[in-house]
Amino acid sequence: MYIQLFAVTHGCGCPYIPPPPTPYLTTTTITTTTTQVAFPLLLDVYDFCTPDLKTALAGPREAFKHSEDIKAGTAKKQKTTTTTTTSDAPDTAGNSTGPAGGDTDMADAPPADPDTLLRQHAGQRTGRYELHAVLTHKGRSADSGHYVAWVKQDDGTWIQFDDDTLIIRKADEVQTLAGGGDWHMAYMLLYREQTVPRVGEAGGAPAVVDGGAAAAGGAATNGGCS
């Protein structure tokens, strides 16, 4: 609200209206946090899923584990064992064939074959997400500083894209981006969904040929997860 003072006039007789008051000049600086905020290289949202979704994820997660064993060279072929029980009933020659019981030959029910699991659940979600890229900021003020991208490559190495300079980094270096100092601090995390790989026959043995991963930005979630 402005108060017009008519008691003071110009020489022409016009009333004098003072200009609006000059507001106080204030400056606000947005600073970055100095508290470390850790983030995982592998984000598993299974514990946050509904019971029904956990049940649905059980098979794909087991199949995915087997695919990881194949990559690591630790996968073992499933063996089916057969046990036979005999009867003491005499055969046609009148000879006893074993202890009493009258059991017939039975084969133990084999567990699900891991290779079959891979084929059944190929391309399905596992509720797991791997860190694929990190955008970082370096500087004490959020209004200025330097922004850099860190991107994971297919061979597992990381590359820091610093303008036109590319620097090869390791996974443990990426985990130093949690903030807490003058070093680069992560402000955006990009996670990629891990799905059950598709398999192809190579010499009779399954071989992982397609990761089937789909990009997912930030803290991606599965349907039914909270």
Low-confidence stretches: 1-7, 79-86, 201-223
**Biggest sheet layout:** 7 strands, antiparallel
The run of helices and strands is EEEHEEHEEEEHEEEE
Tell the overall outline: elongated
Head-to-tail CA distance between termini:
51 Å
- Helix count equals 3
Give the percentage of residues in beta strands: 25-35%
Q: How would you sum up this structure, described in words?
A:
- This protein is of the alpha+beta class and 226 residues long.
- The protein has a domain at 30-71 and 112-226.
- It is 15% helix and 31% strand.
- The chain contains three helices and 13 strands; from the N terminus they run E-E-E-H-E-E-H-E-E-E-E-H-E-E-E-E.
- The chain has helices at 51-72, 114-120, 171-174, and strands at 5-9, 15-16, 42-44, 82-83, 106-107, 125-138, 146-152, 158-162, 165-169, 185-195, 198-202, 205-210, 214-217.
- Strands 3, 6, 7, 8, 9, 10 and 13 form a seven-stranded antiparallel beta sheet that branches. A two-stranded antiparallel ribbon has the order 1-2.
- The longest helix is centred in the N-terminal third of the chain and has 22 residues, at 51-72.
Q: What structural keywords apply?
A:
alpha+beta; disordered N terminus; 7-stranded antiparallel β-sheet; 226 residues; two-stranded antiparallel ribbon
